[in-house]
Amino acid sequence: MAKASFDPQEFRSALSTFTTGVTIITTRAENGDPVGITANSFNSVSLNPPMVLWSLDKSAMSLPAFTSNKHWNVHILSVEQEALSGRFASRGEDKFKGLELDTGINNIPLLKNCTARFNCRTAFIYEGGDHMIFVGEVLGFDKSERPPLAFQSGQYALAARKPREGVQLGATPPPECSYTEDLLGYLAGRAHFQLVAALQNVLKTQQLNEQQFFILSVLSIQDSLTIEEINTFVDYTGGAVTLEDMAALEEQDYVVLVKKNGSSRYVLTANGREASLKQIAVAKAVEEQIADQIGAGDVEALKILFKRLIKATDPGLPDLWATKEENDAKKTAS
Amino acid sequence: MAKASFDPQEFRSALSTFTTGVTIITTRAENGDPVGITANSFNSVSLNPPMVLWSLDKSAMSLPAFTSNKHWNVHILSVEQEALSGRFASRGEDKFKGLELDTGINNIPLLKNCTARFNCRTAFIYEGGDHMIFVGEVLGFDKSERPPLAFQSGQYALAARKPREGVQLGATPPPECSYTEDLLGYLAGRAHFQLVAALQNVLKTQQLNEQQFFILSVLSIQDSLTIEEINTFVDYTGGAVTLEDMAALEEQDYVVLVKKNGSSRYVLTANGREASLKQIAVAKAVEEQIADQIGAGDVEALKILFKRLIKATDPGLPDLWATKEENDAKKTAS
User: Fold this and answer.
1) Residues of chain A contacting residue B307, judged by C-beta atoms under 8 Å apart
2) What is the pTM for the complete model shown?
3) I need a labelling partner for A323 at 20 to 30 A (CA). Which of A21, A300, B115, B147 fits?
4) Which residues form the Flavin reductase like domain (chains A, B) (predicted)?
5) Helix, strand, or coil here: A43?
């Protein structure tokens, strides 16, 4: 380390490993125009008196507004405000266009649906190289339950929180044991099976097994499929669907076989659609219980990571939500 | 919002929704003693000249050291340095005890295995309520590939990053479709099945199906089990193991049936153990490929969230890594 002069890009990259939240800071220019910028240089400073700080590029168009107006609002953005962050990070003119605002102190723009908001009055403006450091006394604040957005290494992020009590599931295995609870495949399997198990009560009353549940799910999205098409969608779950499997579902009045133009297609009956909707409702209820326990932001983070894992290991499965034509095009392209 | 006076606890809670990284900042006292504190009030200030800032409680024991010594190092901690963060956040005397240090400029303590490190010289010390704000010019820095630790709402956290290109898997379903790719159960299932599919080649050469793979996995951790015990461990995967299933594994020379004290127990053969080790090796290779694609920190975040999901939905499964006695005790307790 310790180079007297160094590459600014590398310096920025090293700095950006420090995770931050994302804020929008607003004020009003002398002519009354609303002004706002996205900043991740925010931090708390003092509890008594309550103070926060952030820094602003000396070349920023908003500098005159922030130096002339002593009042400004800091908004800690929620995970749903990524687009708003992008809007206020750009040099556009109409940043506030179409935004519904809350009424703030001194008529300073106050954005809605944030994780937390702080109404501040400039206490000090300090010199900081190519930036000015704004230290503000906090006059008021509020906080919602919306999970906050984070930023790390140039990407938006969500925090996956580590509870203080730790996250170990089972006993610590002896060191020679190569199969541990830290194996990603074990964790994914156990998560999947436990989530299905949480559905078992409804599946039992519907006299359906896991595979039949998958079949109804597929038909609830893409109705009227041949058995070959059903198999392209459930194939990856490991078990091939047979005509007998489908006949059993017919028997139970969940699906009906429709012959048209020489092809035999399965269609959900009203009963089948109702059964599927009930399963989805239970799955969503389970998901809400999980969100209550681990936090809505953590569930969102989990979904993002699930999707990234699925993309990273996708063997080229057909898209359940695409039309047949789109899937054929995808197949041809790959 | 806008209360003239407010509860400091609530204020702290609102501030803490702003996600931060975690740093340790070190210097040396006038008597030469190493000094270090954990701080999350760090942030970047200026690129040209390169400057960073952080703030220190005026009542901190380390204040005299930081005001007298112009040189200090900022260490952005990695996800593996949570314990170090705790150590430097306490008022203990021997924070550096047993720590191996790198050689820093001006003999300022330089910690190892961090995500990034900055060697700084105080440029300004500013007033900030009950804290002092230290602005330092960065004289040198380095950066590793270790994923950084984060902190949010009083908990350590890992960032689950959202790629700029988005994370959507498939086509957008019509609004009336209640089964979407955002259903947690769908994502968990697809993740599980794709991870197992990545193992299919080795399972195929071993002539094993998914259930047999689960059985060998269980026996690789807890060898010498009765079929009832095997079933208590694989039960949650949905398929009951029969004597025929076990006989097939015997036939293939993966397990052997040992009768002892009137009970019949299955033990992995050398061949069975080798097969299991090969499966685990492949599972670990798949995991490494995923880490290469989505990032090691994101895989760690995923594991934490998996474990929290599993805890939140655990129907009381026996611990595969505990002894029989421990599991019996757990069963009695619940």
Assistant:
1) 167-169, 181, 187
2) 0.91
3) A300
4) 15-158
5) strand
* Tens of pLDDT, residues A7-19: 889 999 999 999 9
Residue A237 is encoded by which pair of tokens? 């779950």
Residues of B in contact with A172 (CB under 8 A): 321
Work out the pLDDT band at A294, boundaries 50, 70, 90: very high
> Exposed/middle/buried for B311, CB within 10 Å: 0-12, 13-18, 19+?
middle
What are the structural domains, with CATH classification, of chain B?
14-157 (2.30.110.10), 184-333 (1.10.10.10)
Q: Please state, in angstroms and rounded to a whole number, the distance separating the CA atoms of residues B203 and A28.
A: 66
Q: What is the DSSP string of B198-221?
A: TTHHHHHHTT--HHHHHHHHHHHH
Q: Which two tokens stand for residue A27?
A: 């004020």
**In chain A, positions 240-269, which contact chain B (CB-CB < 8 Å)?**
none
Residues belonging to chain A: 334
3-state secondary structure of A288: helix
For residue A89, the tally of other CB atoms under 10 A from its CB is 15
Selected residues 13-72 of chain B with any CB under 8 Å from a CB in chain A: 13-15, 17-21, 23, 40-53, 55
- Which positions ≥6 away from A215 have C-beta within 8 Å? A230, A234, A241, A245, A246, A249, A255
The Cβ of residue B88 has, within 10 Å, a number of other Cβ atoms equal to 24
Q: Which residues of A touch B311 (CB under 8 A)?
A: 167, 169
Task: Decide if B331 touches A, using CB distance below 8 A.
Answer: no
Strand extents, DSSP E, chain A: 20-21, 23-28, 34-39, 43-46, 51-57, 71-76, 101-102, 110-111, 116-128, 131-143, 150-152, 155-162, 255-260, 263-268
How buried is residue B9: exposed, middle or buried, by Cβ count under 10 Å (0-12/13-18/19+)? exposed
SS3 content of chain A, % helix, strand, coil (to 5): 40, 25, 35
Separation in Å, CA of B266 to nearest CA in chain A: 18
Report residue A62 as tokens.
């908003």
Q: How close, in Å, is residue B124 to chain A by CA atoms? A: 8
Model confidence over B69-111: pLDDT tens digits? 999 999 999 999 999 999 999 987 789 999 999 987 889 999 9
- B310 contacts A190? CB cut-off 8 A: yes
Q: Which of residues 279-308 of A touch B (CB under 8 A)?
A: 280, 283-284, 286-287, 289-290, 293-294, 298-299, 301-308
From B197, B200, B324, select the one nearest A310 (Cα to Cα): B197
ipTM: 0.90
For the purposes of burial, counting CB atoms within 10 Å of the CB of B92, is it exposed (0-12), middle (13-18) or buried (19 or more)? exposed
Tell which residue, A86, A87, A106, A112, has the closest CA to residue A97: A87
B148: nearest CB among A44, A148, A152: A152
Decide if B306 and A187 are in contact by the 8 Å CB cutoff.
yes
Q: Do B21 and A23 touch (CB under 8 A)?
A: no
- What b-and-e string marks burial along A185-211, b requiring 16 or more CB atoms within 10 Å of the CB? bbbbbbbbbbbbbbbbebbeebebbbb
Enumerate the H helices of chain B as residue ranges: 8-15, 63-68, 82-89, 184-197, 200-205, 210-221, 227-234, 243-251, 270-294, 296-313, 324-333
Query: CA Rg, chain B, in Å?
Result: 27
pLDDT 10s digits, B284-307: 999 999 999 999 999 999 999 999
